[in-house]
Design goal:
binds flavin-adenine dinucleotide; 14 helices; globular; alpha+beta; 4-stranded antiparallel β-sheet; 3-stranded mixed β-sheet
Length: 404
Amino acid sequence: MPEFSLELNEDQRTLRGWVHEFAEQVVRPVAHEWDEREETPWPVIEEAAKVGMYDLEFVATTFADPTGLSMAITFEEMSWGDAGICLAIFGSTLAVAGIMNAGTPEQQMEWIPQCFGTPGDLKLAAFGVSEPDAGSDVSSLKTRAVYDEAADEWVLNGTKTWITNGGLANLHVIVASVDPTLGSRGQASFVVPEGTKGISQGRKFQKMGIRASHTAEVLLEECRVPGRNLLGGKEKLDARLARAREGRSSSTQTAMATFEASRPLIGAQAIGIARAAYEYALAYAKERVQFGRAIIQNQAIAFKLADMRTQIDAARLLVWRAAWMAATRTPFSAGEGSMSKLHAGETAVRVTDEAIQILGGAGYVRDHPVEQWHRDAKIYTIFEGTSEIQRLIIARAVSGVHIA
Ligand SMILES: Cc1cc2nc3c(=O)[nH]c(=O)nc-3n(C[C@H](O)[C@H](O)[C@H](O)COP(=O)(O)OP(=O)(O)OC[C@H]3O[C@@H](n4cnc5c(N)ncnc54)[C@H](O)[C@@H]3O)c2cc1C
């Protein structure tokens, strides 16, 4: 097991420099445009594919870093460039994580490459759990998967909502209930590949922030997929359902397993936004003169910047610890994955708010990017588990009490 170290190795430093350069030269200059357009930034994804960043091998190598830090570094730098574009490029990795967590090695080999495509023939993927009546409470999914034994097919029916890349994706991983009486233990994940009938995009949402990332409903109407598209296979599912029916314990739930491992990486994105806002506000505070002196010479402004930097560094320490724990399979005994996402998400909201305050009126208008960063930051206290749900997970983990 690699030691936990705050000193990045040479590969990680090179990676950080490379991603930062892409974020600075390719992403930042077009961030405002794609925020205004509220569309998937295909030319930027294409560019990321060309340089080998939106690429299976890159994602596989980066995820395989035994210290767990490489993906966190990548997400922080890309999100520093623009969080919406970062999600447009890397939103597919949630589906990849779903396939990695639940799929057999054969299924991983078959479907993960289809989540990326190749330059000139890009593919996107989506991971669909949330529903109109099942957001925080993922145990109450209504989307049903029924096995048609004669045809050896699964029939999916239901509505997914708020799905990143939903309907636009070439491949969807859909979490559905096979046995609703068992709650989350009766759920399974299904791959719905390109060209499958019965899957379509519903409403596309107009959002407050991360507007370069596509978010939409996904409708499933008599959507049939072959039996082999059940991740993990039927034998394993039947055994798991039998254990659940007998009331025996089982390993982690389908959707939660994916979210647990990805939480530190969501936190890393939030840190990227916070850092962008902090750096911008620091530079502005040194230049803006009022009452005959730079505004940073007032403690009221300088102390804000001191707090912003302290909170960002603290959030990164939590994120790196959780990323290292996830990579080394160290159990999150105190909800450390949740802690990292909770603190990073709330830091991003606070820091971007303070950045607007430091810029004053200039911070409130679209001439400067800080108002967008504040809008972008807010989602990090909501998706992949709200701040309240993170606190619930931590509180249960540290107390051993089933807090409602
Ligand atoms: C832009 C965007 C992208 C998304 N991408 C995806 C995606 O790709 N795939 C996917 O599956 N989902 C996705 N989601 C869904 C997201 O994960 C959910 O919005 C989130 O889990 C919260 O669910 P909800 O919106 O239904 O809120 P609700 O669950 O209705 O919660 C409403 C409020 O009640 C609080 N609350 C609920 N239960 C409790 C409790 N027990 N204790 C205390 N407070 C509680 C919540 O914290 C929140 O403040 C996305 C959402 C957005 C907005």
